[in-house]
Specification:
The complex is a heterodimer of chains A (318) and B (259).
Chain A: H1 3-19, H2 28-52, H3 60-78, H4 82-104, H5 111-129, H6 131-134, E1 140-141, H7 147-153, H8 160-184, H9 186-196, H10 198-203, H11 208-234, E2 236-237, H12 244-257, H13 262-278, H14 286-300, H15 305-314
Antiparallel strand pairs in A: 1-2
Helix pairs in contact in A: 1-8, 2-8, 2-11, 2-12, 2-13, 3-4, 3-5, 3-11, 4-11, 8-9, 9-11, 12-13, 12-14
Chain B: E1 7-16, E2 19-29, E3 34-38, H1 45-52, E4 60-65, E5 68-69, H2 75-81, E6 83-85, H3 98-104, H4 114-118, H5 122-141, H6 157-169, E7 175-179, H7 187-202, E8 206-210, H8 214-220, E9 223-228, E10 231-236, H9 238-243, H10 245-252, H11 254-258
Parallel strand pairs in B: 3-8, 3-9, 6-7, 7-8
Antiparallel strand pairs in B: 1-2, 1-4, 4-5, 9-10
Helix pairs in contact in B: 3-5, 3-6, 5-6
Classes of the chains: A mainly alpha (318), B alpha/beta (259).
Chain lengths: 318, 259
């Protein structure tokens, strides 16, 4: 990926965010769009962790849960502004990722997948069972972010759907920009190097466990912010956000679109967010379809949809 | 030469499940010197390399880099101190471009903060630019400058060998360990690598070489160490070593030497 791929991805994404509403048949699609952006953000984190650093997490929804419940609980219990609660959630997620990842990532192999699976389930259990704090499986109200009211007094009057659409779109653009910066930076190159050959990476002076840990922490922050945005726009959240299925959903979105490419991951997020909205019958079989998508992509499009198509068009890889 | 050796092995040994793969090996490499380790297959040459470069932890003995005890340091710390290596079975980053492979060798000189990289701050861009300029110069030196933008996996075997050397050079090594740099190369490629190694040594790097191509070893080595069954059986300049009866026995079998 060179500068032009970075620019192309960012411009394409910006154009999509800006122009898509022109084709919306109803206000409902602002909501679907915002959901796509929220999922796209989480999946961008998966690209950094899995696509570049070659590590697999099956518990990233746990971080989304932390981000979501930070926005639900911190304003009520500690009087922290919901906007600041996003940062609080991100900090807690980063700390937890650090504590879990530090011992695990010293080991070779896919131990992170197992450890993160356990971690995600634990977070989900805490959210379900600590009823005094989280109100358990019934879910909990999340306070208003309040930014829309501020914009209104400044003369920009958006509907709730429009506000969250553009707000999440901007955050996703920011997240994509950061990820693409990383890709071409020394840190990003070192990540891709250790993915290519750990032995060689170590002999060129790369501290492999430390770098994997950094990727895990960064991707945890992405998932956490995505959870916060989901909670704030729904104004309500249940422990499902931290559930195992949500973790699998993130990985499947990334794998479908192309786990090595930010544009691909966002495409994957869009497809798997849209499908259940368009085909409501799909909702019943969501797990079945996720599994099927995963299997088919692994067999026919190992790199994911977007990189495979790009390769066809250019006749080369990215 | 009166200079202190850059690399010194003192009684280095390692045991794998009762088998002494390398036993009590000592020798030194001075700046600008090319020392070759030779011996039959299974003599422990690559094992020795793996101990020196930190991939294996030695069971006995010491490794000194410029006088400092660096035994059992992890590979990335050794690399940062100037102990660099290439591999017998190539270890290039296949999906990266040739240029990126060499730039990755600059990682330790530019291990700036992740935050600067995430936000694409000027400091990050400046480091990236310096690394790219350095890498292009190195590619020119090994004759791969025109392949800079190609995916590394698409290069020929001989070019990959040179790419690995260029990547190691990006680390500004004090000691360079080359594990069969000419294996699988044709005569022309071997000669190119010959020149390259001599040139690197001339710049003051201590070079330790494992190579099966005896003509090449005899041509470029200042000093040869012979291993057999993990033990040092002889050492000396090329002429001395090639006349040594123990060496001939190890290579041709004991009966031939006796007869």
């Amino acid at each position: 990926m060179n500068l032009s791929t970075k620019t192309a991805t960012l411009l394409g994404l910006a154009a999509l965010v800006a122009l898509a509403p022109l084709f919306f048949p109803s206000g409902f699609y602002y909501r679907v769009g915002a959901l796509i952006f929220v999922n796209g953000l989480a999946v961008t984190g998966i690209v950094i962790l899995t696509g570049w650093a070659g590590q697999i997490s099956l518990g990233h929804a746990g971080f989304a849960g932390i981000g979501a419940y930070a926005c639900a609980l911190a304003p009520v219990h500690w009087g922290i502004h919901p906007g600041l609660a996003i940062f609080l959630g991100a900090a807690v997620s980063a700390l937890l990722a650090f504590l879990v990842g530090r011992p695990i990532l010293r080991l070779k192999g896919y131990y992170l997948a197992v450890a993160s699976l356990g971690m995600g389930i634990l977070i989900s259990m805490v959210l379900n069972n600590e009823r005094d704090l989280t109100r358990g499986p019934d879910g909990i109200d999340v306070p208003e972010l309040g930014l829309r009211a501020v914009l209104k007094t400044a003369g920009l009057d958006l509907t709730n759907g429009q506000f969250w659409y553009f707000f999440c779109g901007l955050i996703l653009l920011l997240g994509a920009w950061i990820a693409l910066n990383l890709h071409d930076s020394p840190t990003g190159r070192a990540l891709r190097a250790l993915h290519g050959s750990e032995v060689a990476a170590r002999t060129v002076g790369i501290d492999v466990p430390r770098l994997k840990l950094q990727a895990f922490v960064i991707s945890a922050v992405y998932a956490s912010v995505s959870g916060s945005l989901l909670a704030l726009q729904n104004k309500f959240i249940t422990p499902d956000v931290a559930g195992f299925m949500h973790s699998v959903e993130m990985v499947t979105m990334a794998v479908l679109g192309g786990v090595g490419s930010v544009a691909g991951a966002i495409f994957g997020a869009a497809v798997l967010t849209l499908l259940p909205q368009v085909l409501t019958v799909f909702a019943e079989y969501e797990q079945l379809v996720l599994g099927l998508v995963m299997v088919l992509v692994m067999i026919f499009l190992r790199e994911g949809v977007v990189p495979s198509i790009l390769r066809k068009i250019r006749g080369t890889g990215e | 030469m009166t200079t202190t050796p850059l690399l010194a092995l003192e009684g280095l040994g390692i045991t794998f499940g009762g088998l002494k793969a390398v036993n009590d090996v000592s020798f030194t490499v001075k700046p600008g010197e090319i020392v070759s380790v030779i011996g039959p297959n299974g003599a422990g040459k690559t094992t020795l390399f793996n101990m020196i470069s930190g991939i294996y932890t030695p069971g006995a003995g010491k490794v000194r880099l410029a006088g400092e005890d660096v035994t059992a340091l992890s590979p990335h710390l050794l690399a940062r101190r100037g102990m660099c290596r290439t591999f017998q079975n190539l270890q290039v980053f296949q999906t990266m471009t040739v240029l990126e492979n060499v730039i990755s060798g600059y990682h330790l000189q530019e291990s700036g903060s992740v935050l600067a990289d995430l936000l694409n701050l000027p400091a990050s861009r400046r480091r990236a630019k310096q690394a790219e300029e350095g890498a292009r110069a190195l590619l020119k030196r090994v004759g791969l400058d025109r392949a800079a933008e190609r995916e590394a996996g698409s290069l020929s075997y001989g070019s990959l060998k040179r790419l690995e050397i260029a990547r190691a050079m990006a680390l500004s090594p004090k000691v360079l360990l080359l594990d069969e740099p000419a294996a699988g190369c044709n005569a022309v490629e071997t000669e190119e690598i010959d020149h390259l190694i001599a040139e690197i040594a001339a710049s003051g790097v201590a070079i330790l070489l494992v190579e099966h191509d005896m003509k090449m070893v005899m041509r470029i080595s200042n000093h040869i160490v012979v291993l057999d069954h993990g033990e040092k059986i002889a050492e000396g300049d090329p002429a001395t070593v090639s006349q040594n009866p123990a060496v001939i026995a190890a290579y041709l079998g004991a009966e031939n030497a006796a007869g």
